[in-house]
Amino acid sequence: MENKLRSREWFGRKGKDGFIYRAWMKNQGIPDDEFRNKPVIGICNTWSELTPCNAHLRELSEAVKKGVWEAGGFPLEFPAISLGEPLMKPTAMLFRNLASMGVEECIRANPIDGVVLLCGCDKTTPSLVMGACSVDIPAIVVSGGAMLTGRYKGAGIGTSDLWRLNSDLKKGAISEEEMLAMESAMCRSQGHCAVMGTASSMACMVETLGLALPGNADIPAADSRRKVLAQVSGRRIVGLVHENMKMSDILTRQAFENAIMANAAIGGSTNFVIHLLAIAGRLNVPLTLSDFDDLSAGIPLLANLQPSGEFFMEDFFYAGGLQALLKELQEFLHLQLPTVNGKTIGENLGKAKSINKQVIASIDEPFNNSGALAILKGNLCEDGAVIKPSAASPHLLQHTGKALVFDNIEDYKERIDDPTLDVDETSVLVLKHVGLKGYPGMPEVGNMALPKKMLEKGVTDMVRISDGRMSGTGFGTVVLHVSPEAALGGNFSVVRTGDTISLDVPGRSLNVLLPAEELKERKEQLQKPKPVADRGYVNMFVQHVEQPHLGADLDFLKGGSGSEVSRDSH
Ligand code: FES
Q: Which atom of ligand 1 is nearest to the CA of 52?
C-alpha cells in the first residue's frame, strides 16, 4: 500500500528532500505521524466572500476534515479560483476553463492522493470536476447545497422570479421599493440558488454520475445533514484512495448517459449540456450534442421545480430528493454502475420513494411530457442549438416569424424599449455576438427581456434566439448556444431584420427561410470582426475556446495528463 500513495514521493522521502517536504509543513503545527503513510486528502475549496453561494464552504471543509481524520487520512485544504455568478464580469463562464487549469495543476503538483471538491455556484462544479478529471485520482464532490426558499408576503420567492419581477418593474406593475423588499427576502440563508438552476443541476449531475454521496443534490445548505454528508464524504475519500478507485473508473460513457436522462427528468439547466460535454472531453469519453437529444427523448419531466414548474429545491428535498426521482426513472438508468460510496446506483436507490407526487411525479403520471432539452439543427445553427421545451410556451414551439435582429448586447439595450421599435408578438428576437469568442465568454443574456411595448400589451413570451446562454433559472421560448456563433461568420452572423425564421421544436429544426445562394453572398460580404482582446488569459481563451456544441473547453485542455509529475527539482 505504501508504494501506491503518490504522497510518499514527497513525505516518505529520507534525507534533505524529505526534510524540505515535511519541515515547512510543520510550521502549521502538524505532528510527525501525520506524514507517516497516511493518504493525503486534498480539499479543493471554492470558498470566497465574492462567491456568496459558496461562502459557507469553510464550515463544510471542517466537516470533511473530521471525516478524513476519522478514517485515518491526512486532510490538507487548498483554494481554487472561485467563480461567483452574481458578481463576475463580463461572465463567470469566461473563467471556467481557467479555474479548471488551476485545479488540475494544483492537484498534480502537490502530494495529494485523493481529493474532495467543494463547490456550489454554477461554474465552480464543472471547473473543479474538469480539472480533477485531467489528473484522474480518486475524488468526491461535496456541493454546498441550495438556499432555503425565500419568503415574501407568505409566498415562496427564488431566482426564477427575478425575471418576472424585472418585466413587472418595466411595465410599472411593481415599484422599486417592492423590488428592494423582495431582494432582502430572497436570499435568506447560505447556499446556492433555490431553484433547479445550473447550480442545482450540477449538484444533481455529480450525484447521478456517481461522484457524490446520495443526498448531495438536495440537502439544503442550512440543514445540519449537509455537514453530515461532508463528514461522511471525508471518511469515504480515504476508502476510495485505498481502493484506488479513480474518476475514470466511475465516469464511463454509461454514467454520462445516466446524467443526461436524469437532467431531462429534473428539468435541468441548458448549461448542463456545455459542462457535461467538457467533462466527458477531459476523459476522452465519446459524447456528442445529439446524444443529449437521443437520450432525453422519451424521458418525461418528473420534478415540478422552478423554472419549469412550481416548487423549490427545499421542497424537492422534503419530497425525497434526487434519489426518489431516480427511483422513478430506474427502468431507463444503468443501475449497475459504481458510485463513490462503494455501492452501485441501483443499490443506493434502495427504498427511496417520492413522498409528495406534486413535487416528484411518478413515471406513470409525469408532471409534463415536454422534455428538459431539445437539440435543434438547421441552416441557422449548422452545428446545433439548444432549447428547453419544459420552460417554453407550448404555443411557440412551432413558430414562424420575422426576425428582429440586435447586432450585440449594446444594440439590444439601446433599442429594445424604443416606442418606435417595429415589433409585434410574432416577431423573433435575435441577439448576435454574445458567444464564446465574440463577447467573449458567452454570457447568460439569451432570455433577453421583452420589449416594453410588448409587456404593456400583456405579451409574456416571444421566440428569442442567440449565440449566448441563459441562466438555469431562466425560462421562455429561448433558443440558445447557436453554433457556430456570429463571430465565426456562419449563417447566424448574416441573418437580418425582416428575414423569416422558422422554429420547429418537435421537428428539431431552426431555419432562416433564405436560399443558400443568398446566405453565401451575404457571408462573402462580411467584414472580419475586430479582436476582442490583445493580451492575457482572455486572448488565449478567444484563440483556443471551442464552440458550445463541443463543450466550450480550450482545445489544448481536452484529455488529461494523469497524476505523474515528469520532473523532480529537489
Ligand atoms: Fe450562485 Fe445562482 S448565483 S447558484
A: 1
Confirm or reject: Cβ of 85 under 6 Å from ligand 1: yes
CATH number, position 465? 3.50.30.80
568 inside domain: no
Peptide bond into 90 cis (omega under 30): yes
Ligand 1 atom 1: the closest Cα is on which residue?
121
Residue 469: strand pairing partners: 444
Give the residue carrying C-alpha cell 477531459.
282
What is the residue range of 313's domain? 38-148+189-349
Any atom of ligand 1 within 6 Å of the Cβ of 361: no
Ligand 1, from 50, 93, 121, 127: best to mutate by most atoms within 8 Å of Cβ? Answer: 121
Does the beta carbon of 53 sit less than 6 angstroms from any atom of ligand 1? yes
| Element housing 99 (H / E) | helix 96-109
Number of structural domains (the chain) is 2
What SS3 string covers 158-224? CHHHHHHHHHHHHCCCCCHHHHHHHHHHHCCCCCECCCCCHHHHHHHHHHHHCCCCCCCCCCCCCCH
Mean pLDDT rounded to a whole number for the chain: 96
441 within some domain: yes
Establish whether residue 135 lines the binding site of ligand 1, counting it when its CB lies within 6 angstroms of any ligand atom.
no
Q: Is residue 478 part of a domain?
A: yes
Q: How far is the CA of 554 from the centre of ligand 1 (A)?
A: 24
pTM of the entire predicted model: 0.97
Residue 10 included in any domain = no
Q: Whose CA is nearest to atom 3 of ligand 1?
A: 85
54 C-alpha to center of ligand 1: Å? Answer: 9
Q: Are residues 140 and 261 in the same domain?
A: yes
pLDDT in tens, 414-459: 999 999 999 999 999 999 999 999 999 999 999 999 999 999 999 9
